[in-house]
Amino acid sequence: MTTDTISTEVRRTIDALAENRADDPVELLFVGERSVWLVVDPDRFESEDAMIDVFHALESIPEVDTLYVARTDLRASDHDRGC
Question: Taking the model in full, what pTM does it have?
Answer without folding.
Answer: 0.75
